[in-house]
Amino acid sequence: MNARTLTAQMSMGSGGAWRLYVVVLGEPDWPTYRWDFFHAVPSVAQRRTALTSLGYEPVSGGEWSWTEDSLVPDDDTTTPVLIAAINVQAREEVSV
Q1: Which residues contact 70 (CB under 8 A, 6 or more apart)?
Q2: Which of 85, 8, 16, 96 is CA-nearest to residue 52?
Q3: Rounded to an integer, what distance in angstroms lies between the CA atom of residue 56 and that of residue 3?
Q4: 32-51 pLDDT tens trace
Q5: Do 83 and 10 touch, CB atoms closer than 8 A?
Q6: Whose CA is closest to 4, among 82, 59, 72, 66?
């Protein structure tokens, strides 16, 4: 079966809490998970649990990558915004 590969991203919101979302192009509301704690980066296990709760899992061999962005383009004096990403697919239901 050829599963559709999507991208899950994780970033810190303006209030300091991390959120994880699955980018589903063409959909107005992306599946999103928000942590209740602030500033601490969620562990890989916490991210996996969040993805599972949204109905997704990393693709085989998938690894998290990090990139840096800016709230103000072309202004290197602004605080950087860190974004993590991983390729995911919908979890397959196991039939009994």
Answers
A1: 76, 78, 80, 81
A2: 8
A3: 11
A4: 999 988 878 999 999 999 99
A5: yes
A6: 59
Task: Read off the pLDDT of each residue in 61-79 and give the average, rounded to a whole number.
Answer: 90
- Give the other-Cβ count within 10 Å of 8's Cβ: 25
**Cα(49)–Cα(63) distance, integer angstroms:** 15
First to last CA, the chain: 19
Going 10 to 44 to 34 to 20, the CA torsion angle's sign is positive
Mean pLDDT of 92-96: 53
What is the model's pLDDT at position 37?
81
